[in-house]
Amino acid sequence: MLTNLSLVLTLLLHVFSFSYIPSHKHITKRYSIHGIDLSHHQKNVDWERVANHGDFKISFCFLKATEGGDFQDTKFQHNWRESKEAGISRGAYHFYNPSKNAVVQARNFINNVKLQEGDLAPVLDFEKDVNNVSVATVRKNLTKWLQIVEKHYGIKPIIYSNTFIYNKYIKGHFKDTPLWLADYQSGNIHSLVKSPNLKIWQYTEKGRVSGVAGNVDINAFVGNQEEFESLKLGYEEADFEIEIESVTKK
């Protein structure tokens, strides 16, 4: 009897847990531009299958390129080539260590990432908190990295972070810098972050996409197509010429 009761309780718990798995269908319907970000942790990726993912279109990807002062991701160059060949807009990110020299970290990224026209702006991935460096110093060093990278590529980089780091270090600073924020709980990033700079929302770290084994981060671009294109190298805002007919008084 006790064994049967335990079995029933286990089955009920399984059903209850399954029924409360978070659904992201409302997010994929709300936004039309979605992408993934990954690194060597996802191992071998079939980019043709990613490009043909059935549930929603994968329009972009961000790939880990570097970390700290000397680390290069072992899968970056392969994924960089293959994602472009698959027709997916690609971008590269640097995992920033606030305890390391910002200039050295910027050089590490620049030396390993060759951006081309049409590639997405470089990303500063800042999600690691630090206790032995003041907030003001962290902001100053972040600014160094951003300035060096912007000068090299000719485009303003994107800052990636989570809401905790955003509120502690970024909120109210880094004017006009595009933001990419991770939040997996709220269901609506705009309820947490009231910033016009918010461009990308990483809404799950447990997404499943064709061609990627296991979980992968999935992101939504929260603006329109023109705003998305403006994050790419070589983007030029359309000029609208207005012909003015001169009228001569008689």
Task: Write a compact overview of the structure shown.
With about 250 residues, this protein is α/β, with parallel strands linked by helices.
* Order of strands across the main sheet: 1-2-4-5-6-7-8-9
What's the CATH superfamily, by name? Glycosidases
Following the backbone from N to C, one meets helices and strands in this order, namely HHEHEEHEHEHEHEEEH
| Number of β-strand runs | 9
Q: What is the fold-level CATH name, i.e. the topology?
A: TIM Barrel
Averaging pLDDT over every residue, what do you get? 88
What is the highest CATH level, the class? Answer: Alpha Beta
* Distance between the amino and carboxyl termini: 106 Å
Name the CATH architecture: Alpha-Beta Barrel
Strand content: 15-25%
**Overall 3D geometry?**
globular
Structural domain tally: 1
Query: What class do helices, strands and sheet pairing give?
Result: alpha/beta
Task: Supply the number of helical segments.
Answer: 8
Please give the largest β-sheet.
8 strands, mixed, barrel
Instruction: Catalogue the unreliable spans.
Output: 7-21, 238-250
Fraction of residues in helix? 25-40%
Rounded radius of gyration (Å): 22 Å
Could you describe the 3D structure shown?
- By secondary structure, the protein is α/β, with parallel strands linked by helices.
- The protein has one domain: TIM Barrel (Alpha-Beta Barrel), CATH 3.20.20.
- Helices cover 33% and strands 21% of the residues.
- The protein has 8 helices and 9 strands.
- The chain has helices at 2-19, 25-30, 47-51, 76-85, 102-112, 135-153, 163-170, 225-229; strands at 33-38, 58-67, 71-72, 89-95, 123-125, 158-162, 179-182, 198-207, 216-221.
- It has an 8-stranded mixed β-barrel.
- Strand 2 (58-67) and strand 3 (71-72) form a beta hairpin.
- Helix 5 (102-112) runs parallel beside helix 6 (135-153).
- Mean pLDDT is 88; it is low at 7-21 and 238-250.
